[in-house]
Design goal:
The protein contains twelve helices and no strands. By secondary structure, the protein is mostly helical. Bound molecules: iron/sulfur cluster.
């Protein structure tokens, strides 16, 4: 007796939509219309505050970081201020953001490097940013983009999930996903593209329960659409 495997829903759906290079501009345009407020949610006033906020945001929410930095930035105004206090005091000041011992060590090491090698300034080149303790490619990309020195595309958990669902990449590794996205997303959209995916991921394309029925991409742009 012949056994028929069920046809792959995703493979079938992929045939419904155009190739990714033909869809990408329309995806960006529709998401930009849907989420005109999609920008970084962290609050900062200068490049050092930006760097600190992004470093603190690992494994916690932007709301928590903003609550902590509201006080933190009144006390620590320059890189030297982070080095002047005992490490335990800095740990206490950032404790609510989680993994605070490691974050405090990284902040301290980063500030020392900024002072000793970068004249107290936050560098803009990715290869310099990733030299700072605790600064990986994602953090470096966020900082560079906000400084207006865009050199790549931020890949976080939302960007990874949505890029996969939209058929823009088949990879799991953030570096490979970033390479795939950089090949198809127009460079002028590299800065806003991750914000659009992050906000769409939070509001519509939930990890467990994507709300395809409310999604502007569902009808013709998303191969994973369930409608
Ligand atoms: S159609 Fe569904 S799976 Fe595709 S992006 Fe929208 S919510 Fe996500």
């Amino acid at each position: 007796m012949a056994i028929f495997a069920p046809r792959s829903y995703v493979r079938e759906a992929r045939r419904r939509v155009a190739p990714k290079r033909e869809r990408i501009r329309e995806i960006v345009a529709r998401l930009a219309l849907t989420h005109p407020d999609a920008t970084i949610a962290l609050r900062f006033r200068d490049p050092v505050e930006l760097l600190v906020s992004v470093m603190l945001s690992a494994q916690t929410t932007d709301v928590t970081v903003n609550r902590v930095t509201e006080r933190l930035f009144r006390k620590y105004r320059r890189p030297e201020d982070y080095v002047a206090v005992p490490l335990e005091e800095l740990e206490d000041d950032i404790r609510p953001t989680g993994t605070f011992r490691q974050k405090a060590r990284n902040l301290r090491g980063t500030m020392i490097m900024l002072i000793e090698e970068y004249d107290g300034q936050v560098p803009e080149r990715l290869e310099d940013l990733v030299r700072l303790p605790g600064v990986g490619r994602k953090t470096a990309n966020v900082v560079a983009a906000e400084l207006g020195a865009i050199q790549g595309i931020v890949v976080d958990t939302h960007v990874r999930r949505l890029s996969q669902r939209l058929g823009l990449t088949r990879h799991e590794d953030p570096a490979k996903i970033e390479r795939d996205l950089m090949r198809i997303v127009p460079p002028e959209d590299w800065a806003r593209f991750p914000h659009l995916l992050i906000w769409h991921g939070r509001r519509v394309c939930d990890a467990r329960r994507p709300r395809c029925e409310d999604c502007v991409l569902a009808a013709d742009l998303c191969p994973s659409s369930r409608i």
